[in-house]
């Protein structure tokens, strides 16, 4: 489809006209097909993984030709390996399609092939440099690069600079971006402004991409590297005292023994939490007592395991386990941990040390203790006392209506006295019995529902439902009405 646009005013005496091509996209985005069994990815025999996308049919002009490629992906034996290879294939096919590759006749369009002098914008240039820079780096590093580039491009789009040609983006423009980071940008998760260290890291990453563009001769000079780094005051962490370490160990022995082994890898070999999360069974040589680990600065680093570490390792009972098992997992023993996000792994174990404030609740005190948890969640409301009063558990939901809160229990007791009902009432536990289970529900329905709805022979069941179940989905009203009519008919038949 073509649109012809005429411009009546311009730098020449006559009108200017040009043509805009509105060509349809010839393909859908490539995706990785992952077979599943009971909702989980599987590598079982016969369960084939492949990359697929739709191609536009020249006869129907619709995206109805399904193209599938596996390219050896099914040779790998684990979900993790196939997922990584599959994602790489998705990226490769995406690039090929963008460059004009035709999967039907295996050709590349001449127009794309001849476009050797492509003009990059700030947005497309940064994305191109990002693609080159992140080909052979760790996933955690790639995620950091992608996040900081997204912040930069978001700012550029807001300032109408994303579409500038690369050589039109100036040093002054980048200083504007630095001002944005220092004075305006708010982290969505923390709701805080960026630290000088974080701003410096963003500048460093964008600078590395501009260097990549310079090496590809897309720009003449990387002016960002000449910008001074903002000074930051390093945080000095106070080390634990010996007595504090003893207290921590005693606490963990009672509440979370598994974390003693995790801490041992931090204290003795001085590993970072991320490095500990990378450890596999195969990294521990218990015959020669040597530890191999993938560190931040080296691909592999080896060190001797000291005597104080050996009891913690022996307690984990790793002998005979597959070498590919993760040493630490959420199930408190070595095994398969499917997530590939190092952030997720490190955050999980960090959360198990998060209750350092004396005013915070220790989650392990409430774990598998419903009475203590209920007293916390239901305290200080609707007549219930504080957590120590035990009212949350005492006046928990009972009866067929699940009457809850001390104020409701007291009101029901007053109703019994007012009506001189002779059935024995021996406190909140009475509502667990058949008689009070039914009677309390009838009382609540009459006092809290019927009193606020004028019930007549013509009252809509929708009106009653809106009072009793005000969060009910609209789609279930018809079903409730049908049940109501059926119940009414059955009651009438009993008269």
UniProtKB/TrEMBL annotation:
Parts of the chain that traverse the membrane: none
GO biological process terms, semicolon-separated: DNA integration
Domain Core-binding (CB): 117-214
Alphabetized UniProt keyword annotations: DNA integration, DNA-binding
The organism's place on the tree of life at top rank: Bacteria
Protein name as it appears in the record: Core-binding (CB) domain-containing protein
Gene3D superfamilies: 1.10.150.130, 1.10.530.10
InterPro entries, per the entry: CB, DNA_brk_join_enz, Integrase_recombinase_N, Lysozyme-like_dom_sf
Signal peptide: none
Recorded GO MF terms: DNA binding
